[in-house]
Design brief:
- Strands 1, 2, 3, 4, 5, 6, 7, 8, 9, 10, 11 and 12 form a twelve-stranded mixed beta sheet that branches. This protein has a seven-stranded mixed beta sheet with strand order 24-23-25-26-22-27-30, with helices on both faces.
- The termini are far apart.
- The chain is 34% helix and 25% strand.
- By secondary structure, the protein is α+β, with helices and mostly antiparallel strands.
- A hairpin with a 7-residue loop joins strand 16 and strand 17.
- The protein folds into six domains: 6-155, no CATH class; 160-186; 192-353, GMP Synthetase, Chain A, domain 3 (2-Layer Sandwich); 355-493, 2-Layer Sandwich (Beta-Lactamase); 502-659, Rossmann fold; 661-735 and 773-795, no CATH class.
Length: 798
């Protein structure tokens, strides 16, 4: 066997074959991947100490390496004969107790699928489980399952069944034990940790004392006791740690796939007794912040809590990682003890405590507000308190998921008002003293590379915040001169991230299926319409993410590019140099596109090019600022589009709105009366049925029956209502959800387009084909408890 061919697949327990029999040369195998694909390969190399295999892909005739983290199963195709030997057990000794008899096994994979059969014993190594599936005439085939692919597994009879058979327990006792076990297994890590979470220094000190008096277990021993790892896995991890002493054992075990991060944290809390602190409720001693610089806290994601008897207590995500503790001990020259907190809470605490409270900063700025107006000229845009205030303002907007920051100065001695737009509504954030209004605007202009001397006309720019603060945030800045010689500033906090999966947009099942079917076509025009801020760009990028495959060339023209994704060729338009949407589209047509996305069809030229491109073999996606899907058709025809070309090109139009999502913590509901339900049914069909038609009442009755079955368990309907609590800022809402109206361009709809039918006729035809209007979609989502009727009516006004 060559050096390149090193295969260490184990033999069945109690096998009489020579140890090298399973590694005589390249092993033909069928590999099932976690993404659903299969590969026919020759395995060139497998060692239990390596988290990968070397293969020769038979289809491509190429050699390569495949990480075990991508593999579901490896099925060796060579069948072998089992030679039973009671004197030999590979790796277990002559007195091994692993049975050679046929054992039933059942595997449940992470994707929910199962595999069952019989095995001649089993072997567990660092990377996973080796099974030896029984065949006729004493033969077997080798199946290997990496540990990361598994959710649960059982080999041999359940221990409970054995106990009952041996009269160790009764059936009733076994059932009671299984119920208790299920309760423990179903307990989420967050519930497990927060059940005993610590919220005060006194509680934490008592917990640390208990920890010191508890048995001194090592992490590996604790994980073995919990049954989360095997002895071979621990041995392999310790061997790896000898080569790299700086890497924590827990991190090595996670990298190997031997244990999950959740399992590790649970063991740290339950077996090693390391306290878990809720930093959002914990009172942190602000004096300690002087001893631990912000850059160290951010570098290691740690939060200092307090000092007790010369010992510095800090919160980290993984207390077994010595690097932050050693660094902090060197810097502070005192003993450091680590407790546990979530990474999210630590980052929140760093932002909360190291950057001063916004009210405190505003008070610092206002210290000399009583002085004369001449002080305004003395304030500079580089003033330390002002710089901290602007940074804090941007960080808070990002953390609170605000979409825009509005800065509104007033003449005279009135304070400058700062407001955030959250979930579509403007909320007061802070008031800044009038003496700092010019310096505040100048500071933002400097960050956005704008002309600070120009105050008479609007300016546009961008801020790359990572140059000024600790977060990777991008903002689009617009300044607008207002009366009294003032300037307003509005900063849009750009999404700047990965697209949302199309399945997570909140589309109903029917709308999702129809949207996916429409954009799966190789050419045509698909539009997303709605007012500014209704999430059109987000939806377009979700659609692009769905169809973004290696065999497609996708060009986008956007203003600005807010969401990026691998595989797209994205162009930022710039009207100042003539790079408009229309100009970009003409360029794309010369660049061999499959799919073209243009940010907005805002003029006749862009719309005309888009329709022409869709008729010449390209899939074109774009947005429109219209109220509904049927109205978009009339708008485009009014812009001068040829009705026949437009009808041929159109695939579908998706209209959408964003409604506020009810806070899951404080939401309440009331039972709807029969009269309430009848009125809601009439409102549901207000725009899509002819109320003079006698069949309308039948439709109403059928609708109410369906609602009762789907949302009321056949008994009664409930209307959800917003209340307000500390978690949602007393608004009753937390986040937003989409309401959708999908018009599919059927043959009948295309005929209506060609003869320029009115909007009402298009609506009736689309409704007959299953279209759900925006309000109808909103009513259904309110009955499901996602939002309330007030929000639905507010965003669906025409």
């Amino acid at each position: 066997m060559s050096e390149d061919t090193q295969i260490e697949f184990p033999l069945p327990p109690r096998s009489g074959e020579a140890p090298g029999a399973a590694a005589s040369g390249p092993e033909p195998a069928m590999i099932a991947l976690l993404d659903g694909r299969t590969m026919s390969v020759d395995i060139q190399r497998y060692q239990s100490s390596e988290p990968k295999i070397a293969i020769l892909d038979k289809r491509l005739r190429e050699k390569g390496e495949l990480p075990l983290s991508k593999i579901k199963t490896i099925h060796l195709l060579n069948s072998r004969h089992f030679h039973k030997s009671d004197a030999v057990a590979k790796g277990l000794g002559a007195d091994a107790t692993t049975p050679a008899a046929h054992q039933e096994f059942e595997l449940e994979f992470a994707d929910g699928t199962r595999l069952q059969g019989e095995t001649l014993g089993h072997v567990i190594d660092t990377n996973g489980i080796h099974l030896f599936q029984s065949q006729a005439f004493g033969n077997y085939t080798h199946i290997f399952v990496p540990v990361l692919a598994l959710k649960h597994h059982r080999i041999g009879p359940f221990i409970g069944d054995l106990l009952v058979q041996n009269n160790n327990v009764t059936s009733d006792q076994l059932n009671q034990g299984l119920q208790e076990q299920q309760k423990m297994r179903s307990r989420k890590l967050g519930e497990y940790l927060t059940a005993d979470e610590i919220v005060s220094p006194e509680q934490l000190q008592q917990a640390l004392i208990r920890q010191q008096s508890s048995p001194n277990l090592r992490l590996g021993e604790a994980l073995l006791m919990e049954g989360l790892i095997s002895e071979p896995q621990l041995k392999a991890a310790l061997e790896r740690q000898r080569d790299n002493r700086k890497t924590p054992l827990g991190e090595i075990l996670i990298t190997m796939g031997a244990v999950t991060e959740e399992g590790l944290k649970k063991t740290l809390a339950s077996k090693l007794g390391i306290p878990f602190v809720n930093l959002k409720k914990f009172t942190i001693d602000r004096k300690i912040l002087v001893r631990v610089p912000e850059k160290i806290a951010r570098r290691h994601t740690l939060m200092p809590l307090y000092v007790h008897e010369g010992k510095l207590i800090i919160a980290v995500e993984n207390p077994m990682n010595r690097a932050p503790i050693d660094d902090l001990r060197f810097h502070t020259k005192c003993f450091v003890e680590a407790v546990m907190a979530s990474e999210e809470d630590i980052e929140w605490a760093i932002n909360q405590y190291y950057t001063a409270n916004i009210g405190t900063l505003a008070d610092q700025l206002g210290g000399s507000e009583a002085d004369n107006d001449s002080q305004e000229a003395e304030v500079g845009e580089s003033d330390n308190a002002l710089v901290r205030l602007v940074n804090k303002m941007i960080l808070d907007a990002h953390q609170q998921r605000a979409s825009d920051i509005h800065i509104e100065p007033y003449p005279g001695k009135r304070k400058t008002v700062v407001r955030f737009r959250k979930d579509g509504s403007l909320l007061h954030y802070v008031d800044v003293p009038y003496t700092y209004r010019n310096a505040l605007i100048s500071r933002i202009k400097i960050m956005a590379n704008l002309d600070i001397s120009e105050r008479r006309k609007p300016q546009d720019g961008k801020i790359d915040f990572k140059k000024f603060g600790p977060a990777n945030i991008e903002l689009r800045v617009a300044t607008v001169p207002t009366s009294g010689g003032m300037e307003d500033v509005v900063m849009r906090v750009l999404a700047n991230g990965e697209p949302i999966a199309i399945e997570q947009l909140g589309l109903s099942k029917l709308n999702l299926e129809r949207t996916q079917a429409a954009v799966a076509k190789p050419y045509g025009l698909f539009l997303v319409c709605g007012p500014t801020g209704s999430g059109k760009t987000t939806t377009l990028h979700s659609i692009l993410g769905h169809i973004n495959t290696p065999d497609r060339k996708i060009w986008t023209a956007e203003d600005p590019v807010e969401i990026t994704q691998q595989g797209l060729r994205q162009v930022q338009t710039n009207a100042k140099i003539g790079l408009t949407f229309a100009y970009a589209m003409r360029s794309f047509l010369r660049a061999d596109p499959d799919v073209i996305m243009v940010g907005e069809m805002r003029d006749q030229e862009t719309t005309h090019i888009g329709i022409e491109a869709s008729l010449t073999g390209h899939l074109v996606l774009s947005t429109l600022h219209t109220n509904s899907a049927p109205e978009s058709i009339v708008r485009l025809l009014d812009m001068g589009m040829d009705p026949f070309n437009f009808a041929d090109a159109l695939l579908g139009i998706l209209a959408q709105r964003l409604a506020k999502r009810l806070c899951p913590i404080c939401t309440t509901s009331r039972t709807a009366s029969r009269e309430d339900v009848e009125l809601l049914a009439r409102e549901y069909y207000a725009d899509s049925l002819d109320h003079k038609d006698p069949a309308t009442q039948v439709k109403h009755d059928e609708l109410v029956t369906r609602w009762l079955e789907e949302y009321g368990n056949g008994k009664e309907l409930k209307f959800s209502e917003a209340v307000g609590c500390a978690e949602c800022g007393d608004t009753g809402y937390d986040g937003r959800l989409g309401l959708h109206e999908l018009l599919v361009a059927s043959k009948e709809i295309k005929v209506l387009i060609q003869r320029r039918a009115p909007v009402s006729e298009i609506i009736f035809q689309a409704a007959r084909e299953g279209m759900r209007t925006l309000k109808q979609d909103g009513i259904e989502k309110s009955l499901a408890g996602h939002t309330d009727l007030h929000q639905v009516r507010a965003v669906c006004i025409k």
